[in-house]
């Protein structure tokens, strides 16, 4: 099961992804976390992306696609991946499809966490106070939100046309959102019941 968690910054994607890692044994691939780790390590990549991240822009497609490819290569036997904060542009979405296809896989489900901008701005204010993440400062966050509306939200029709998109109310509390996501995954993300193995298949393991 490969899942894209979709939504604006601070919609709760990271929190929900971590729950899914625990509950379903999926691997979380957060390009934001990878880029922050690169910065913390002082690598060339970290230095290259620092300014873009600090000003709320998008790192180049090439860089984030390479980061994802590396993780897909490193985890050939994964039960599935949760893509968190990726893809953020159409070329990224297309690259992800191609990359999964070359591995005989696909994006199975896209869950959009719907949160209103006003509520996100409140949330982020609180997160900035608590964690002091530099790109959460009001000025930069505004740019990140703009980047979402300009570059990322246009992916919604891309996934909708493929019949993969399901919307979940992201304004509810964490556990309620988690239950909504679980319901979507258990019905395979498109309202169809996941095919359950028959009694005989379960008994004889086929
Ligand atoms: P996030 O923690 O996902 O909000 O990401 C933090 C920052 O990392 C973003 O504001 C971007 O500068 C950069 N970033 C993370 N993921 C991507 C991506 N898929 N494409 C481009 N830039 C990204």
Report on the structure:
By secondary structure, the chain is of the alpha/beta class. The chain has one domain (3-200): P-loop containing nucleotide triphosphate hydrolases (Rossmann fold). It is 56% helix and 11% strand. It has helices at 13-24, 31-41, 44-54, 61-74, 90-101, 117-131, 138-152, 155-161, 174-186, 199-204, and strands at residues 3-6, 27-30, 81-84, 109-114, 165-169. Strands 2-3-1-4-5 form a five-stranded parallel β-sheet. Helix 1 (13-24) crosses helix 9 (174-186) and helix 6 packs across helix 7 (138-152). The longest helix is centred in the middle third of the chain and has 15 residues, at 117-131. The protein is globular, with a radius of gyration of 18 Å. Bound molecules: adenosine monophosphate. Adenosine monophosphate (AMP) binds next to helix 2 and helix 3.
């Amino acid at each position: 099961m490969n899942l894209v968690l979709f939504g604006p910054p601070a919609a709760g994607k990271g929190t929900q992804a971590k729950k899914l890692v625990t509950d379903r044994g999926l691997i979380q691939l957060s390009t934001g976390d990878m880029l922050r780790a690169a910065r913390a390590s002082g690598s060339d990549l970290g230095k290259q992306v620092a300014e873009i991240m600090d000003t709320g822009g998008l790192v180049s497609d090439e860089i984030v696609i390479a980061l994802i490819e590396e993780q897909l290569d490193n985890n050939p036997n994964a039960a599935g991946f949760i893509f968190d904060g990726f893809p953020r542009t159409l070329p990224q979405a297309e690259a992800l499809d191609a990359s999964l296809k070359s591995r005989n896989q696909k994006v199975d489900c896209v869950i959009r966490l719907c949160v209103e901008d006003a509520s996100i701005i409140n949330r982020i204010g609180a997160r900035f106070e608590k964690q002091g993440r530099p790109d959460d400062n009001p000025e930069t966050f505004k740019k990140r939100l703009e980047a979402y509306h300009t570059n990322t939200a246009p992916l919604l029709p891309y996934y909708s046309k493929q019949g993969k998109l399901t919307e979940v109310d992201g304004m509810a509390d964490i556990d309620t959102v988690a239950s909504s996501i679980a319901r979507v995954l258990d019905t395979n993300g498109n309202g169809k019941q996941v095919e359950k193995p028959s009694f005989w298949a379960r008994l004889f393991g086929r």
